[in-house]
Design goal:
mainly alpha; about 10% strand
Length: about 180
Amino acid sequence: MSVEHGSEGAGSSIYLDDETIAARARALSSPVRWRVLRACLDEALTNKELADLLGVNPGSMLHHVRTLVATGFLAAEEPRRGQRNAVEIPYRTTDLVWAAGRSSAGFGDFLLEEIEVAQAQGEATAWRTLMRLSEDDHGELRRRLEELLDEFRTRDEGMDADAGRSWSIVVSLRPHGA
């Protein structure tokens, strides 16, 4: 479905064929699917949990979930036993939503709504600043931000789900006017 050139990471180039681009665009064209992606950011949820949470018919929700899985925006986690010992498959939003979503019409709304809801609940802090940096200072700032985020992400790996709360962090380091 896609053709990849280079390796992942800075400076890599990944080329997607028209079929993949069209499928991903269709997947992100539904407001219900954006709600699913938002719901599965913090915790993995099953089709039934998503249907109940979002007030959507379970059959319709299954269609949305399958579409998001097929296009790489949701990933299935290990099956688990639910009520009545039934096997349930929980799903979690993948990092692809950040990469693909930047160019989609719904992404800005998705991100802004996340921030607005949290601000209304008194749980969001947003910063914006402008600074002039040499190339060396820019490199140092980027490296230190990455190290700080990696440090806290690593702490999370061994933590019990009940021991802390999930926090969303978005950092954009870009040239002014870009």
